[in-house]
């Protein structure tokens, strides 16, 4: 009969090139001495087309104004590129003199109809004012199907429309609010246990050659402040979903990442503006584009209006070859919002990134003096090894997350001290050993910035003996905290094990030895490993290894046979 020892632990991007400040200059006139509309701007247009992952390039260099209209309440300017694509600037004026702007792009496709994408109308200025905006602003575009979308990045803008007198526009200037944006908000208090949530996802932006240029991982939540019709202010929370669509632009100097999604009939977007300076990446600005729909923003003064809010961050995130990591909650403040992140990893490059995050991390202050709880990736198919051919000592080792190992050692007691022919009276879980690697993807603190050494720690003692009778098994539904060397602590829930048995059966058998509190419910188990890495840094790692019950179709167990 073979010996069996078992341990079961329950638990289209299209790019418009930028030639310089206000590089593109377009104007249209119908009659009279001068133009009725005059547009100067820098622009980058990104269109994400259905079933296409790479980018295409379209330059406005050499583009010409081909048509327009000059009416009292509606003015339009149309620009055609050398490839016959068209960009429309549409200005409307309401009865009270308020001017709004929307954009439309006709993307010409050979052998089929043009693809038409529009933006929502947004407030611009008043009549008899020139509009200027130096900051980069993102305009969201989409077709009727919602499967083709894009972003028109405009900066160094001057719009002159509705007010030309004999070809001369008014000297009165309105500057966009985002040019002077500053936050009056203060970081909010973190909720108890807020960092323990983990609804993380990963968003990836690819450049024109199909290489990854921006990668962001984590939880993103907007806390948005808006004005009610009675003048009071209130705040609403908006979670950026895992299904958010990714678009943007990358070159050697800058990267723009757009995360957009739709909530009901309202479009939302968060835009990250990054600048590459030598070996450093700077997060210059964050922009939110939010439609104040009645479902999410009840009683809003600007009901159903598309509003923009800017946050000037100017924060160095990373150096070349590293990623920015902030495991704990961090708040990036804008004029009307706080972007709250958790489990954040951020990496970008003016060229391309390797697959996955690098092994070198740039940390954040929030992680320096905090206890942290993070997930250690564990495959369902955990490798197992061990030794079962002794009647004195048996052991089992679980291998997971590259070089991590958990080793369990069992020692028997016998009637004659383990001599040949002696009978086993019982056995004890005598020792647990953890082998782990200090990896910056798991250990978020100021001391762990690169992949460190492999360390091994062992249990010093157990509060109570973990004993079972011969041919029986042990089960404890309570939580046990086990102290290891070097300040490591292991917390185990719902532990069940059996060793020293001469059977090939896959089920637990024999008498059950229990701790004080035994639950009748079978539950998952979780192992928490707390590792002290410095005077002010303690890291908590959660290791989810597996699930066990008598019905194999529902749960897994770990066993070793010899």
UniProtKB/TrEMBL annotation:
Specify whether Transmembrane helix is a keyword of the entry.
yes
Keywords from UniProt, A to Z, are: Glycoprotein, Membrane, Signal, Transmembrane, Transmembrane helix
Q: Name one GO biological process term.
A: establishment of protein localization to organelle
Which InterPro entries does this UniProt record tie to the protein? Lysosome-assoc_membr_glycop
Q: Which Gene3D superfamilies match?
A: 2.40.160.110
Superkingdom as given in the UniProt entry: Eukaryota
Cellular component annotations (GO), alphabetically ordered: late endosome membrane; lysosomal membrane; plasma membrane
**Intracellular or extracellular location(s):** Cell membrane
Tell me how this protein sits in the membrane.
Single-pass type I membrane protein
Asked if the record carries the keyword Cell membrane, the reply is no
Its recorded name reads Uncharacterized protein
